[in-house]
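Side project, low priority. Logging it here so it doesn't get lost.
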Amino acid sequence: MPILKVLWDILLVVGAILAFCTSVGLLVLNKERYEHLCERWPVVMLVPVIGGFMLLLLLAMVGGEIAREEMRAWPVDEFVFRERLHGFWDAAFGSLMLVTFHLWAFLVPGHCYARYIMESKGKRPWTPYVINILVGLLLCSPCNPIYMLFKR
């Protein structure tokens, strides 16, 4: 049984790294750059698929841990807390998950929508960023009404 737990933990770490790379790729790469990377390295096409699946798992897991107050909302506090309890690697993994959650809570959806609007209209709007930051602040506070559903 312990070997399955070790394999699951390794899968979660690799998945969290892929989810983080997918998140950063959505911020940095445009369509032409992504197609160029796929031509050079065909394995790059698998990263968004696996990373997207892990994003769904990771965002739900971290959101639930923040709601139950098992995880701190600030990555530095979470790193220090986990490092004292379980060591460096657990702290690094927890902080990576939290930073990926913060990317999606505060930046990635607004950035993708603003990029889409900019490509169609030629002007980058600022409202998606503001709305995304406000929703992120709501999601990162443990006493918001959405998390009351998790506590039941």
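Brief comment: Residues 2-149 form one domain.
Revisit when time allows.
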